[in-house]
Amino acid sequence: MLIDSHCHLNYKGIVERQKDVLDAARERGVRGFLNISTRQSEWSDIVATAEREEDVWASVGIHPHEADRHQDLGTEALLQATRHQKVIAIGETGLDYYYEHSDREVQKALFRVHIDVSRQTSLPLIIHTRNAEKDTLNILRDEMGKGAFPALIHCFTASQEFGEAVLELGLSISLSGIVTFKNAKDLQETAKIIPEDRILVETDSPFLAPVPHRGKTCEPAFVADTLQFVADLRGVSADELSETTGRNFAALFSKARV
Predict the structure, then answer these.
(1) Any binding-site annotation on 70?
(2) Alpha carbon distance 88, 108 (integer Å)
(3) Which member of 6, 22, 45, 229 lies 3.0 to 4.6 Å from 202 by CB, making a disulfide possible if both were Cys?
(4) Is 8 annotated as a binding residue?
């Protein structure tokens, strides 16, 4: 079962033609979509899309770029938002030191708030990390020591060493269209060694369109192209990898009915 495990259906470039975009993906065999939020003001629209579309689910969370604008967001606000039946994940959250849009200490504190809610609800944590491997791993190890929580690294682009470390902690890894890029040789090698029960695929629409769609607005339908590329890397059929990643999605996001 092919699932786009991370897309932004309410972002510019997608939301204006959301129904057509979803129908196009369904025609290519996509059977589910996890619609990701990045700021609190989006939550109601993200959930409304999930209410309207049976095969769409929602996450609630704050992207690290938005951390400075949500310094006062407490555990209770997140917990309240998770009570909707179509909310199946927390995030995306994490650390981004590439753009430095928010103070690093604020990012760290908000990351821990999300982890606490994930632990309390057992909803998986969707983690964004860029140029922040050391701090991300330190926080994950520290928080896992307080009690386990389900999580995955979305749009994985980090080092193989980091990948091995988060896999050891029990996390899953999701691959985006970046893995298809010509300059992504290291990532392609990492994609080959992700355990069968920990691998997912995504688009991160409307960003990061995979080959052969580079330069276009990325759509959930393109997850089929990423899946085919990864299947070829791993020496399996696309149908086999589709079943594997779909099964992994259903196991990780157990609140979803797939």
Answers:
(1) no
(2) 23
(3) 6
(4) yes
**CA–CA dist 70, 107 (Å, integer):** 10
Q: In what order do the strands lie in the sheet with 199-201?
A: 2-7, 30-35, 56-60, 87-96, 125-130, 151-153, 172-175, 199-201
pLDDT tens digit sequence for 208-219: 999 999 999 999
Angle, CA of 29, 184 and 163, to the nearest 5°: 85
CATH topology of domain 2-252: TIM Barrel (3.20.20)
Judged by DSSP in three states, 252 sits in: helix
State CA 167 to chain mean position distance.
16
Convert the pLDDT of each residue in 17-42 to its tens digit: 999 999 999 999 999 999 999 999 99
**What are 161-189's pLDDT values in tens digits?**
999 999 999 999 999 999 999 999 999 99
Phi then psi for residue 241, to 5 deg, are: -70, -35
Could you state, in order of their start, the residue ranges of all structural domains in the chain? 2-252
Mean pLDDT of 101-129: 98
The answer to the question of whether 92 is labelled as a binding residue is yes
- 128 among annotated binding-site residues: yes
Tell the residue number behind the tokens 């990390």, with chain if given. Answer: 129
Q: Is 1 exposed, middle or buried (0-12, 13-18, 19+ CB in 10 A)?
A: middle
